[in-house]
Amino acid sequence: MAELRTEEEQVQALKSWWDENGKSLILGIAVALAAVLGWKGWQQHESVQAENGSILYQNLLDSVVGAIGPQQDEAKLATANHLSGQLKADYDDTAYANYAALIMARVAVEQGELDKALTELDWVLAHQPTESIFVLASMRKARIIADQGDADKALTIINSVPVAGYVVSINELKGDIYLAKGEIAKAKSAYETALNASTANNRPLLEMKLNDLAAQES
Q: Could you give the angle at the alpha carbon of 87 between the alpha carbons of 84 and 90, nearest 5°?
């Protein structure tokens, strides 16, 4: 009898606990289940987004091949512009959109449309790119602006770029800009900094630039 009472007491205690905690337990399970399903749904969405973005980007590359050069195809150029616009509109939070803008900036430069190229590069810079893409877009922007005749503005852009990891390319570009300004000593210093930071056994283009400067100074 004592054992039965003990069992009855256990059942009653369980019922009491359920009355007090059952609803919150069910709610907690429901929330956890929703979180798991939501996470899986988000992962699937991201996977689909990445796959679709990749397909559009590959189609863009195929179009660009025929859109520039001596055999320029206006239809392919129009397709490239359309695909780039779609990537930037529907996949603006992916690297594919940034790469698309970089490519179309290159196409614009090939066509002599420098202002359009700057617009594409500014789009990249405004959409939180990775550091490497930020540096690349900034350097291309600086080079275009220097080609347009505003060397000081180009240098301002370059001086705002993180240098670590990009010493060679940044200083080589600085040397080109200083040279365009006629500041030979600064150009030489920048080229030497780039050459000294290079891990390659030789940098024939940099060495040629330095040799040309040496010839001008003599």
A: 145
Which region, left, alpha or beta, applies to residue 70 given φ > 0 means left and ψ of -120 to 50 means alpha? alpha
Q: What is d(CA 50, CA 173) in angstroms, rounded to the nearest whole number? A: 34
104 residue type, one letter: M
| pLDDT tens sequence across 10-59 | 666 666 655 666 666 566 665 555 555 554 544 554 555 667 888 898 89
How do residues 88-144 score in pLDDT, each as one tens digit? 999 888 888 999 999 999 999 988 999 999 999 999 999 988 999 999 999 999 999
181 vs 112: CA distance, rounded Å: 22
Contact predicate 176/146, CB 8 Å: yes
Measure the CA–CA gap between 205 and 93, rounded to whole angstroms.
37
DSSP state of 68: S
